[in-house]
Amino acid sequence: MTTRKEFEKNLHGHDWYYAYSDDHRYWTAGHQQVQVLHEQHKTLACPYDLSTLRRWVHNMIIDQFAEEAPGEWYRQPRKYKSIAPTARGELMTQEEHDLISDWFHGPRKPNEINHLEDS
């Protein structure tokens, strides 16, 4: 039986960009893995869709980004000049991120809650 811990591990280990591969072997492996993720998602009755979970895995938290031009969000501090911007719709709040984390790990105690000031 699949556990939330296994599901989380598979989400973090998945190549979310496999579809862009020129090598059919990587595409096939990625496609098979996404089928496993769908099965685990269904088995565990996860309330979050895979797109939201992808954003969670990549820590796409709005407080870690800045809008440098209208509709163009960049992770801060910006390390590279040649990087594509992120759309606002691809970002989530810290609260949304924490709710998903709580689904995987159970509610946290107040002293375990992530605060941006502590990062």
Explain what the structure shows.
The protein is mainly alpha-helical. It folds into two domains: 1-46; 59-107, no CATH class. The chain contains four helices and two strands; from the N terminus they run αααββα. Strand 1 (65-69) and strand 2 form a beta hairpin. The radius of gyration is 16 Å and the shape is flat. The model is unreliable at 115-119 (pLDDT under 50).
**Protein structure class:** mainly alpha
Spatial gap, N to C terminus: 36 Å
Which radius of gyration do the C-alpha atoms yield?
16 Å
Mean pLDDT: 92
Secondary-structure element pattern, one letter each: HHHEEH
Q: How much of the polypeptide forms β-strand, as a percent range?
A: 5-15%
Total of domains: 2
> Helix share of residues?
40-55%
Number of strands: 2
Strand order of the largest sheet: 1-2
Number of helices: 4
Key structural traits:
119 residues; mainly alpha; 2 domains; two-stranded antiparallel sheet; 4 helices; flat; disordered C terminus
Give a nutshell description of this structure.
By secondary structure, the protein is mostly helical. It has helices spanning 4-13, 24-43, 50-57, 94-105; strands at 65-69, 72-75.
